[in-house]
Batch of 2 targets.
Target 1
Amino acid sequence: MGKTAAEGFYNDLRLKEAKKLILEALKEHSAKITGIKKGDPELKDSYEELLKKMADYRGGALFYNYLGSGIGNGPWVELADGSVKYDFITGIGVHYMGHSHPGVVEAQINGAISNTVMNGHLQQNTDTAKLLELISTEACKYGAIVKNVFLSTSGAMANENAFKIIYQKRAPANRFFAFEKCFAGRTLGMAWVTDKAAYRQGLPKTLDVDYIPFYDEKDHQGSINSAVTAMKKQIARFPGMHAGFVMEVIQGENGSWVGNTEYFEALIKICKENNISVFIDEVQSFGRTTELFAFQYFKLDKHADVVAIGKNSQVCATLFTDDHKPKPGLMSQTFTGSAAQISASHFIIKSIVTGGYLGENGKIQRLHSRFKSNLEKISLKHPEKLKGPYGIGGMVAMTVFNGDEPKSKNFTMKLFENGVLSFMAGGHPTTRVRFLLPVMVTEEHHIDEVCGIIEKTLQEID
Ligand SMILES: Cc1ncc(COP(=O)(O)O)c(C=O)c1O
């Protein structure tokens, strides 16, 4: 018997037994998935029907003919046609823990049996408090002061909240800096930050953003100089009008382009001199470098005013310093995340921090090195077909067919048919194909097999 009814419920032996049985059943069925498999011919028609229905109801076809069956095993996911694929894109960087991970499923059950479907600002259970503490403590462990954590349900919303916090603090400044070719999300606000014309076609203008060229590792000093010059020019053009700088420190949607500490510091110095808030958008890179937060990897701890995370964290969040606390009324949400999500988030973040993934000798670096050396070997054999790889940690990208967009798309489709999920990034003439690894469940031999399939697929295309 616990002091609260809930404590009694969570410790009820029937519940423990039920969970044990669910996890046993999961283990047994998931274990049937042992590698790539073609679809079952008997399911072909019904699967195609389902895909067609899906396309009709959602107003357009899916990128891949992918409808999950609801189960997987580590890096393998089963689709509803009975086929099994290597999931090396993980829903664009979400399934860090692969598919049907028992720890994640158990965490989700713990959340799902609570009284709330969705937590929200008038309705937060104790799990939320635990999660906020974990995120805040980990974020501040090397001296950052972004101790306040505000949850939300998408990366775009986490970014919107970051922009609101910064605009309010810096009012009446109403411009923002962002990097060329950055991605910030698809809300009406973020569509004007994301540096891609097609993503805001026909939308009314909402924000004024000045773009700074991103770091170029082939021209370290030159790219610092040109970024600094561009920034100073805009500040001179609009004195006192820049509220913040959204820094996507690793450009995921653009194809895993990696920044540099000295480069960031040169720009941050100008921010600090001009009362411009530093906002690190690591919705995609969270948990994918050798540190939990990418700003920690780049050692920008002391400079971060606001940070956004998402994807791997399952729940999205905006972190901010005391100095950037919004006034009452600026932010509130009916939904901050489902109870199952919040519980899974805690499990995943805790596992990343304690499971041997981080650090120079951690699993993330180990997997990256293996993937990189395999792709380099393929590139040496087929230099006209594959260049790279690029990226960092659990974000790996390559150029196929010299960045030609239709050919890159064709490659991803063929790779999918051959059993590997990847995705396009960037755009002509620097289209890339990228992978966001299910770090928790990937082993070197999986990477070797995937690289074998990449090479085979390249050979199939002229
Ligand atoms: C850097 C970055 N910011 C924001 C977002 C938007 O996140 P969401 O798609 O969850 O709204 C993304 C999504 O890819 C992203 O990569």
Note: The chain has a mean pLDDT of 97.
Target 2
Amino acid sequence: MALLDEKVAIITGGANGIGLAIAQKFAAEGATPIIADMKAPAEGNFFFVETNVTQPASLTNLVDQVVAKYGHIDVLVANAGITEHKGPVSQLDEENWNAVINVDLNGVVLTNKYVVAQMEKQGTPASVINTSSILGVVGAANSQAYSAAKAGVANFTRSQGVTYAKTKIRFNAIAPGYVNTALSKTLPESVTSTMAERMPIGRLLEPEEIANVALFLLSTALTGAVINADGGYTAQ
Ligand SMILES: NC(=O)c1ccc[n+]([C@@H]2O[C@H](COP(=O)([O-])OP(=O)(O)OC[C@H]3O[C@@H](n4cnc5c(N)ncnc54)[C@H](O)[C@@H]3O)[C@@H](O)[C@H]2O)c1
């Protein structure tokens, strides 16, 4: 039996990058990943529901479609995100501020709202992972909406963890450093090498490494399994 057999996992922003790596990792462990994105997945054979995380009606449709097809939702990875126009606050582009806050913070909160309501009804073990960022933890120059949104995601997640502590729903946030996704591949080498230098590990992270963290969080929150020192796991 695989670690995530019979688990149904919604992954927003799962069509590319980190979200796609998480979907692939969960599928390899027996889960049924649902890709909820504005775009179809770049690769793989996943159940895809076209979704805009800023629109309540779109999220209601997502939950309805998944419950109609699979009967339950065990995992949410609220991962959809966009980047910002960088600069000092005196040059703030209000339209871009609103767009980034709307997707990166409001979108995470709204997705939690509609999916967690379904998890509450089920009453079975469930796990929510929200994607924050290193920029939500430390100060980075010229980052406005993105840093604010990602810090908001981290503390929103802490609040929900406490709120739901006596239930079977667990909340965690992941705060990746710089990751080697399609976005970073479009940047000049001078920028990516600076990003790599800022990483204690001395290189950009690979999406699969973030997917391993998501799997680790699920393994204890959802299944009670214990990860062993060799990277394997023991089911409880
Ligand atoms: N790449 C990095 O270095 C890095 C570092 C830290 C955190 N993150 C965060 O990780 C998450 C994934 O990033 P990525 O690098 O894989 O990005 P990506 O651009 O490869 O993927 C993001 C996905 O989100 C989708 N999306 C955007 N707006 C949406 C909306 N309104 N509704 C539904 N889907 C929407 C996009 O279509 C895309 O498929 C983001 O939240 C990002 O902020 C990324």
Note: The longest helix spans residues 94-122.
